[in-house]
Specification:
108 residues, alpha+beta, three-stranded antiparallel sheet
Length: 108
């Protein structure tokens, strides 16, 4: 899953915990990259718990749960797949990477 603000793909850290942050925006789970965390008020763009106001929410299986107070509510929006026009998807990126590693020609 890419950063919801800039589209950067998450990479595993060399050691220690990941510097990426999770949140929920418009009832969808999102990731925030370290560069975007240094930017504007990204936490203000996230959904907040209606009980305690926290942004430490997780969205799974059609529910949004607050990791601070434990409140669970139904997600109002259903999950959907969004593909940006002209931007390669993950499957295209993987195919291109495999072609480079295996020294094949470009994929069609």
């Amino acid at each position: 899953m890419p950063c919801y603000r800039c589209g950067a793909r998450q990479t595993d850290p060399d050691h220690g915990p990941s510097p990426w942050r999770r949140g929920v925006r418009e009832d969808r789970q999102v990731l925030i990259c370290p560069d975007c965390q240094n930017g504007l008020d990204w936490a203000g763009e996230l959904d907040h718990c209606t009980a305690c106001g926290s942004t430490t929410l997780v969205c799974r299986l059609g529910e949004v749960e607050c990791r601070t107070c434990g409140q669970v509510r139904a997600a109002e929006r259903t999950p959907e797949t969004r593909v940006s026009a002209g931007a390669p998807g993950l499957s295209e990126e993987v195919a291109a990477a495999l072609s480079r590693v295996l020294r094949r020609g470009p994929t069609t």
